[in-house]
Structures are given as C-alpha cells and as structure tokens.
Amino acid sequence: MKTAIIYTTKYGTTAKVAGSIAEKIGEAHEVTVISLKKHPKPDISGFEMVILGSSVYMGKASGKMKTFCKENETVLLQKKIGLFVCGMHPEKEQQHKELKEAYPELLQQSAVATCFFGGAFIFEHMNIIERAIIKQIANTTTSIELINWEAVDEFIGKITG
Question: Which of 48, 53, 97, 113 could form a disulfide with 7 if both were Cys (CB 3.0 to 4.6 A apart)?
Fold first, then answer.
C-alpha cells in the first residue's frame, strides 16, 4: 500500500516517531516520509494511506499541520488515515484535548487510529528562554524522552490491520 507519513516537528521528536513508523511498516508498504517544513504543500493524491503526525508545543499543535489538514481535508477523507501527536503533557485529559485540537473533527472521525505518543524535552535544541520555561514548568534541567513506544506499536497495528 502506498503510504505517506506527513509530519511537523519543532525539535525532532515527531520526526523520530515518523521515521520509526516508516521503518516498521516499510516492508509491507511503499512509504514516503514528508516534513511539512521542507515540503509545505505535498501532493497526496497518489497515496492510499496517509499518517499525520504533529508536534505539540506549549499545548498547541502545529499551525502548519492545521493548515495542511484544512487545505487537504476533502482528499484526506478519501484515504485510510491515522493521526498522532507528540507532546509532553503528563495528564491524560490534557493529552486527549491536545490530540483533539490538533486535527479537524471529520478527520478524527474518519481515522483508523489516533494516539498521543508522548514526547521529549531536548535541551540541546532549545534556546535559553525555552530552557528556562521548561525548567520551571516541568521541573527538569536535563533532556528527557518519554515516548510511549508500546502505543506506537499499537497504533501501527491498527493502521495496518
């Protein structure tokens, strides 16, 4: 199945997850991984399945992903789709809210799988102001990765099943 994994990322976590998904489904699918930063208007007409991944930063999903979804909603609704977000909020209720706010309701209803995968604080990629904010709100001074790889595998099972 010809599959596009389209993502946005601020510090690279969502790209890492997108790459992992591509690697895991690559034997059974013809996979193309697309960064909206590098290719803001990809042509998705030739894909049978589209997996969308958005970073969540300070509680907000990527504006680029929201714009992409809005501009391509009609075409996306004709595809098999999966939706995920990467973020660091620890509370399940807020994770659900961030996932819900990241994508249009019609896409969520049409999606075969949706998931919040967790994320990472990568201090080496942050500027001094971002590091100060993260230190204060997350009470950490070191990089942390909290990706739920089991959830990624479950998502893959749903999207490929």
Answer: 53
